Amino acid sequence: LSLSLSLSLKMSSSSSSSSARSSGTVVLEETRTIVVETLRSALFSSSDDDGKKMSFFSLLNSPQRFMMKKDEKMLFREPSLDVDVKVVCVLSVALFVLNKTVKVFLVEPIARKCLNSSSLGEEEDDKKNKKKTKRRKERMMKKAVQKFSQSALEAMIYLSFFLLGLRIVKTQPWFWPSFNWWKNQTSDSRTSADFRGYYLLYVARYVAEIISVGLEYDRKDKREMLLHHFSTVFLIGISYAYGFTRVGGIIMLLLDPADVPLHVAKLFKYVADARKIELNKKRSGRSNNNRAMATQRAITVGKRCQFMADVLFGVFMVTFFITRLVMYPYVVYSSHFECRKFVNVERNLALLIGYWSCIVLLYIVLALQAYWFYLILKVAIKVVTKGEAEDVRSDDEGEDEDEDDTEDSDDENELEGKKKK
Known about the structure:
The chain is mainly α and 421 residues long. It is built from 14 helices and two strands. A two-stranded antiparallel ribbon has the order 1-2. Helix 7 runs antiparallel to helix 11 and helix 10 packs antiparallel against helix 12. The longest helix has 54 residues, at 289-342. The protein is elongated, with a radius of gyration of 26 Å. Mean pLDDT is 75; it is low at 1-20, 46-73, 118-126 and 395-399.
């Protein structure tokens, strides 16, 4: 991304006059700056830019990196909505294309290998109704691959942003105690390039996820997910515009870690379910030594994956409760009450509207966390009573069965018609 933006900058600078830069050039330059500074802070020490630590990025960014370093307005400045909104649009498109590319060319092939079960035991069924069996298998495999790929991609995204935020936010001088989130916040709302890059990348990520959730398979909490993503985008946007970026960075850091064990647990669960299907097919066929060994292997793999899914679900449950129902409510409390000890939110109407808009959105997100923890408790009860976790947020299995029954009846009517002819 940095190399492509560098080429775009050179093309833009050659076509524009030396006295004034176009808006597109400014957006590309700012995008390249925040991406480079964010990656540099994540990979290298931010306190020392000399010597070998900068050798990689000096090659990546050419001499322009050191020219931009001298421009303090580019690396350490106040929010500029005219530029930053366009930067978010560029980053959103880039992240969406990157996610789709990784999903199609990397994650989905791995998902097919992990979920693809042997065709042993299907010969008898195929002889009876080959067309119906093949169609049902393709439909089940497509949905399973889609679920597996989505969870794997989200696990990578949440883990990457959590590590990035931990590296950048934790090193800020105002990280703790909480009153530092509000001291001189509105009077000096300047942000460094790496923190600004983390902030804008976070917004762009949720914009890309809104598109992805709208295009992916239906599930029970799709409306709640869209409400959460839209609330997050507006909350981050308002906090950025009105200078409440410090508490915004804390919130972003808290909301990511719990989703990592959740999606990894779902990956193990999908593999365990695939092994169950494979086991049922093998048991329905003829018995021989090879089939017995394959059946035993499927049982072993299924049990191990189910055990890992249950363990990771327990880790997710504890992490979710600590970060989202203990730490996050404290941030909401600090935003609602502690903030007004240091910030006069009533000094002008715009700040007052922005402040209370953030408070309302914070409580909406908190209510969604309570709703999702209710769903988590339902899964925990299923683990205790039935011995394994089920994803209660997934699409309804009953709908799939109705579709299968409808298609089966259509196929049977077609066969009856052929017999009569």
